[in-house]
Design brief:
The chain is 37% helix and 19% strand. By secondary structure, it is α/β, with parallel strands linked by helices. It folds into two domains: 221 residues, Rossmann fold; 188 residues, Nucleotidyltransferase, domain 5 (2-Layer Sandwich), CATH 3.30.420.240. A hairpin with a 2-residue loop joins β9 and β10.
Length: 486
């Protein structure tokens, strides 16, 4: 049998090249081996490629967000995706947007370099970049397609695309600025997303790590983009299937176990700030310990002491839209100075469904009081509960900001007067929201908690003073350090 220069049988090599032409995961694997020094295959990489292939071939709806940690080959996967797409559809156009012109230039240059390589021309013979249109950030194929790249929201006018790739639209530093975050989202909505040549074939792929609860990735997810989420370390056993690719890992397993050994993790990962690790590595942008509250302020109780008084604290909303506020009911059992949080309802419901939930919880727990802010939906829910004989207390926030309301009750929180019943559903989301405040995208549970503790403080008998609260009250606000300097 005739062989190749490397000694492999000719038919085997042709089969391998045919696989690369047909499947992005096969092309990606082959090109990474020749493009990345010391490349090591990890099982999540073909999973990413398969998810992208499903999107660009419209096996799904064409819109995809992939979230994964830094330095995990996401840019190289994007590069090979663009090269494979232009080899498969040389008449089509690709648009690349990143957080800067310099990054876009670097990635576009690597796409062109890959397309000029010997390996690429074996897979896609005859597909070439035109000699007269080979600018790094705006080159064309000999079949009429091409790649246009630029900093996000720039250089995009006047051209359309069939595949739109976003690689880190926002840097971690820029994410601290609300104005920059909003500018990037606005650029996507008004410029980038409008560049699709044909809605029936257009695909938008965003690859990168999370940098903020309100980053572009979060915005795209609120628009119901398909989502492949790959945390640095599995927080539970995982089994993910995309097309013909199946990915499994156990709780605690990292994506690249041979590179991130326990020693490396201890040296380079465990020393990261908690909010950086949670946001950029675990893809949980409501990062614990990033705000003024700490998870340690809320001890876990193994069971409840007998007796006590059950009190509900409500924060009511009425929208079911993604991204809207939640309706929250926190159920406390008060024993002396300590309040045990024993149930959380956190839902997006219309009014009728919320009313049914309120009545069901009232019947289940038989609380002595419902604390409900006297605004909008809360007024109506309070009325329904009163009709059923419930004791409802109308709450007026007095115009205080959320931060100011938290500051008033900080003594009770820091003094560990709120315990969480062990094993309660919703505990993780509750702590994530509280410890991300004031940076998190949701604060409905914070509002319900501070409402309860403020009422508790105001209802204490005259002459009874919380010693922890008295001790810290004269000090400057803990939230002052989060406010802009004047």
């Amino acid at each position: 049998m005739q062989g190749n220069k490397d000694g492999t049988p000719l038919d085997h090599r042709e089969t391998a090249l045919a696989l690369c032409r047909k499947y992005l995961w096969a092309f990606n694997e082959r090109m990474l081996r020749v493009s990345v020094s010391g490349y090591e295959r990890f099982s999540y990489i073909p999973l990413m490629a398969q998810a992208i292939e499903d999107a660009v071939l419209r096996h799904t709806d064409g819109n995809l967000v992939i979230t994964l940690p830094p330095r995990h080959l996401k840019s190289y996967t994007g590069i090979s995706t663009m090269a494979w797409y232009l080899g498969t559809f040389p008449e089509r156009e690709v648009m690349l947007g990143t957080n800067s012109d310099s990054l876009s230039r670097d990635l576009a240059a690597k796409v062109a370099l890959m397309m000029r390589s010997e390996e690429y021309n074996l897979i896609f013979p005859g597909q070439q970049i035109r000699e007269d249109r080979q600018a790094i950030m705006d080159f064309r194929t000999n079949a009429g397609g091409g790649l246009k790249a630029g900093g996000f929201g720039t250089r995009m006018q006047g051209r359309g695309a069939d595949l739109l790739i976003i690689d880190d639209a926002l840097s971690a530093h820029e994410a601290e600025s609300q104005a920059v975050r909003e500018s990037v989202i606005n650029a996507f909505e008004t410029v980038f997303s409008t560049r699709g040549n044909n809605p029936a074939t257009k695909s938008v792929i965003s690859i990168g790590h999370r940098v903020h609860p309100d980053d572009l990735q979060g915005h795209l997810l609120s628009r119901r983009f398909d989502h492949l989420n790959l945390a640095f370390k599995a927080e539970q056993d995982e089994e993910i299937t995309r097309g013909r690719i199946q990915f499994r890992r156990e709780k605690g397993e990292v994506l690249q176990p041979s590179r991130y050994t326990p020693e490396i993790i201890a040296k380079e990962i465990d020393t990261l700030a908690p909010h950086v690790y949670a946001t950029q590595y675990q893809q949980r942008p409501t990062a614990r310990e990033s705000g003024v509250l700490k998870a340690a302020y809320f001890p876990v109780a193994q069971g409840l002491p007998p007796g006590g008084e059950t009190i509900f604290s409500w924060d009511c909303a009425s929208s079911t839209n993604p991204g809207s506020s939640y309706s929250v009911c926190l159920v406390f059992q008060k024993h002396g100075a300590v309040s045990y949080l024993k149930h959380i309802s956190r839902v997006r419901l219309g009014y009728l469904a919320l009313k049914e939930l309120a009545l069901a919880l009232n019947e289940r727990y038989q609380p002595t009081r419902h604390l409900i802010e006297a605004t909008s939906t809360g007024i109506s829910i309070a009325g329904e509960l009163r009709i059923r004989g419930a004791n409802v207390i109308d709450i007026n926030t007095g115009g205080l900001s959320k931060e100011a309301r938290l500051d008033v009750v900080m003594g009770k929180i820091a003094g560990q007067y709120v315990h969480i019943v062990g094993g309660m559903p919703g505990t993780s989301d509750f702590l994530d929201e509280l410890t991300a405040f004031p940076y998190g995208s949701n604060n409905d549970q914070v509002d319900a908690l501070t409402q309860y503790l403020q009422w508790l403080t105001s209802s204490e008998p005259t002459g009874v003073t919380n010693p922890v609260f008295r001790r810290i009250a004269p000090r400057p606000s803990r939230l002052d350090r989060f406010r802009p300097k004047t």
